[in-house]
Amino acid sequence: MPLHRRFLALLALLALACLLAAPAARAQAQGKFIVMASTTSTEQSGLFGHLLPLFKQATGIDVRVVAVGTGQALDMARRGDADVVFVHDQPAEEKFVAEGFGLQRRAVMYNDFVLIGPAADPAATRGKDIAGALRKLGAAGAAFISRGDKSGTHAAELRYWRAAGIDVAAAKPAGYRECGCGMGPALNIAASSNAYLLADRGTWLNFKNRGALAVLVEGDRRLFNQYGVMVVNPARHAHVKLDLAQAFADWVVSPAGQAAIAGYKIGGESVFFPNAGS
Question: What is the three-class DSSP state of 51?
Fold first, then answer.
């Protein structure tokens, strides 16, 4: 075969090899991501906008976040629709692991809940006692917006009502309304109706449409809000991207991940406080 024909044949073989390799390369590139089921507070506080680019820079892994209430996030993972879970309802998280859906629960960070309400505080709730504040709200029939979405915030709110001696499942106070929505929409409803509600501090700090709302109750030790991360068990769902999900779980509790969390501030105020290993 003449030299130029051999050269053309070689070019054709190289072109064919590239064509055959392209789908595999695309598949490999597209596979470098995980799905994370997380809470609306981590998303709407702005934390993930700060944290996830740093994780991708360190590992090359994209994280696709589905931000819902903690209960919904755990249900997503139970169905195998997520690779990793990052939520804030420790009893529910421990149950998730005990049932075999998660490999291990690891503490990551904390912040706190606050009672938000009209700055004028017509129900006189202001102070540090969350149970006492809710008793006053119940007695006054004051407007209160509950997320009502089985989120970590909703679970905490129900605990505080029980501590106040009020079973909202049996008999809701006169002004009690459930929105079945995330933290941001719940805050918007409260702002437009001048109502009280329980919020995580991170989302409150990032919330711009405050209207006449203000923080009224804070500092009660019961308002502590712990977050945890769990990799979904591939024994339950074989398609879980174990190595990539574990890379995220390991990074977020590493010195680099913990420093990234500590570095996120709004208006100079820390939003989350790293406490891996606690």
Answer: helix
